[in-house]
Every structure is written in C-alpha cells, then in structure tokens.
Amino acid sequence: MIIHSHFDVNEKGHLTIGGVDTVDLANEFGTPAYILDENVIRENCRTYRRAAAEYFGEDALPLYASKALCFTGIYKIAAQEGMGVDCVSGGELYTAKKAGFPAEKIYFHGNNKTDKDIRDAMDMGVGTFVVDNHEELCAISKEAKKRGITQRILLRITPGIDPHTHRAVVTGNVDSKFGNPIVTGQAMEIVKAALQTEGVHLVGLHCHIGSQIFDLEPFSDAASIMVRFIADIKRECGFEVEELNLGGGFGVRYTEYDREIDYASSIRDIASIVTGFCKENDISMPRVILEPGRSLVAAAGITLYTVGSVKEIPGFRTYVSVDGGMPDNPRYALYQSQYTAVIANKANQAKDQRVTIAGRCCESGDLLGENMELQSAERGDILAVLVTGAYNYSMASNYNRLPRPPIVMVKDGKARIAVKRETYEDITANDVL
Ligand code: LLP
C-alpha cells in the first residue's frame, strides 16, 4: 500500500491501481492519462450515504460536489449510488442532464448565476437553487413567476468561520464573495426577503466553509452557528427551517504527512452537535444535506506521465520533466499543493532522490512539485502522481495548446475509457478565422 490501500506494487515491481498494472495502462492508453479506480468512488459514496442515514436520519442526502471531477460518467455513478449532486454552472448542469441524472436531486450553486443559467436550470427542472444574494433571489422569482412555478430554494449563509486551509479555498469567512454573513445581519435580511418573495419556496439554509480541512472543529463550529441561526429565525420570523446543507470540505490524504480522515465518524460527531443543539433550542431537526467533492474522488485517481529530460543543475536541483504539467494539474502552481509521486516501473525501488517535477509548458512555474522524493528517473520511465482524482481534470486547460488527457476507469481488474484524449482537431474545432 502506498498512501491508500488501492495503490500497491506487483511482482514486476510496478505500481498498481485497483490491482491493475499502471505500466500496462500507460502502454495501452498513452500518457499523460488520468486513471480512476471506480470502486473507490462507489465505496466513498456508500460511506457517506450510510453515515448520513445512520447519524442524521434516513432522509439525509449526501450530494456529490461535481466541480471536483465532472464528466458524463461520474453523474451516472452518482445516480446509481443514490447521491444528489451539486452543480455550479450551465456546463455542469448540461453534463448531468446528458447523463440522465434526476433533475430533482440537483442543487444549483454559484455566486453569480446568469439569467440564462437560471432559465436553463428551470427548463431542466432542477430541484433546488442555492441562492447566493438578493439580485439572484429577484431574478429567480421573476423567472419562476413567468413560468407559473414555485422554485424550491436554500439560502447561502456565511457562518464566519476560518478553517485554516489555503486562503484560495476558504469560503465561510465574513469577507467572502459567497453568501450572506450572519454577523452583519445580512443573513437575517435575506431570510426575511425570501419568505416574502413570490415564486420561491424557502426550505432552508446552506453553508460551506472551505476545502481540504482536517480538523473537525471548524465543521462543528459552523454547524452550531447554523443551528443557532435557525433558532433565531424561528424566534424572529416564526419560520422553521426544513433543510440544512452543511457543505463539503473534508480533507484528503495526499502524502504520508497527511492524516487519514474517518469520514463516517466525523459525520457522527457533527450529527451529535446538530441534534444536541436542536434539542437544547427546541427546534425540530432539519433534513441534513452534505456536499463532499474531493473526499469522494481525489484518492480514486492518479495521473500517468512519461519522463523526458532529467536535468541536474549542480548545487541547485534536479528537474525531472514529464509530458504533462500545469495544464492537467494546476494545483501546485495555484496552491503549492503537495503530492506523492512514484516511478511506476520502479515502484519497488527506494526513493533515493529529491527532485523537482516539471511540466512541459513554456513557463518556470509549470511544476507538479518541488523537493519530492522519487526513485532515480530516466527518459522513458512512467511517472505516477497519486491522488489526482479531484480538481485536476476539472481544472485542466489547453495552455500551450496541449490536448487534455483521457480519463480511464479501472474496475475489477479491467480498464475502459471514460473520456477520450483530446485531439488537435478538438482544440482547433471552434477556431473560425
Ligand atoms: N460545496 C460548495 C458550495 C463548494 O464550493 C465546494 C467546493 C464543495 C461543496 C466541495 O468541497 P470539497 O468537499 O471538494 O472540499 N480547486 C480547489 C478546491 C476548490 C473547492 C471549491 N468548492 C482545489 O483544487 O483545492
């Protein structure tokens, strides 16, 4: 086992994912390529569903936050596993629709939904809009009234929590582009406005404090702040919140220095706070929605590359360059995110080097990691970066006109393509002049 139990080394000394030899995968599908272990994603969905039902009650629903990894097949898996989904754009909604995902189980997010987004989502019959602000509330109401429908909504609330993670992925503090802060009084204002707005049916509240969070405390603080706010709403408006969406954000183990989180017991602990507060404050327990993204898909994935140049600059460092980089994984460039790398064809050898793994783009910041422990690399080796299932493919670009890699799914020892490799034709397809 390397970091997670579905990564191992076989008798040839090759890295395996879900029991499949990654060197064979690189030979069959080429590099760079994203590989996903489908059983890991399904198992993670089941963990969330079981824990949500056991600790929050049978009506609790975990949503898959599909921004983490979005392609048609993932919505099919989410549907089969009984999950809802969180979509944040017309493109995600379109993909979910193409997959046949049940629209009533979609929660439509985003801090700046366009009028077209709102129309498209209503055309699809999206179950719930998570309303970020007053303008959006008015726009949804206007469109719903025009159609003669009543749109189910939640309101996005900012609990005012600093979860101590990378600042680019913090969302629940007061100074945020997302939601309505409780401390400034804006949260109560929008609740009152929504209760008086025609064409919408306010069912509850949503909060999401950030991503890649390992401590339980920020989650339990957010949950208790939200439940207190629910009690305030009942007192001030006589309105009982029916649904509370607590967002996502659980951390994932990327390197051996990260802890492994037991998601089920974290859900149990948060549930005991919510149920305790509801009892103390004499409010009925709302239906609870959870919204994990990363923790469902990150560990399921790896990216395979082929090593090209290995450049040692004496007194400085060794650059190992691969045939991908920031276009397929921008997370080191953006957040200095740490990963584990393995030379897949030398996975049984000692990691006796410290190297910088560089991509192939014309820019020095195009790195996948620095000071990374690695086996001795040479041209032609297959390099695997582990735990790339979340926020890699979904954040990929065509920088330097590099085609996006394919997604290959392995399941029960077999591999199949879920998303084809982009071609040069694909990346010039929309060029008109
Ligand atoms: N719900 C909402 C409203 C969100 O904004 C997010 C993530 C989630 C749920 C899922 O959070 P998760 O369980 O995945 O932490 N690109 C960054 C992560 C951005 C997270 C955006 N929102 C990264 O690569 O680390």
Summarize the biggest pleated sheet: 9 strands, mixed
What is the C-alpha radius of gyration, as a whole number of Å?
23 Å
Average residue pLDDT: 96
- Report the portion of residues in β strands: 15-25%
Number of strands: 21
Bound molecules: ligand LLP
Distance between the termini: 52 Å
Q: Segments where pLDDT lies below 50 for 5+ residues?
A: none
Instruction: Give the CA-based shape.
Output: globular
Structural class: alpha/beta
User: How many helix segments?
Assistant: 12
Helical amount: 25-40%
Strands, helices and their partners?
Blueprint: E1 7-9, E2 15-17, E3 20-21, H1 22-29, E4 33-37, H2 38-56, E5 61-65, H3 72-80, E6 84-87, H4 90-98, E7 106-108, H5 115-124, E8 128-131, H6 134-147, E9 151-158, E10 180-181, H7 186-196, E11 200-206, H8 217-237, E12 243-245, H9 263-280, E13 287-290, H10 294-297, E14 301-313, E15 317-322, H11 331-335, E16 341-343, E17 353-358, E18 367-374, E19 382-386, E20 407-411, E21 414-419, H12 424-428
Parallel strand pairs: 4-20, 5-6, 5-13, 6-7, 7-8, 8-9, 9-10, 9-11, 11-12, 12-13, 15-17
Antiparallel strand pairs: 1-2, 2-3, 4-14, 14-15, 14-19, 16-19, 17-18, 20-21
Helix pairs in contact: 2-9, 5-6, 8-9
Ligand LLP is lined by residues 65, 67-68, 86, 109, 169, 171, 208, 211-212, 247-249, 291-295, 331, 335, 391, 395.
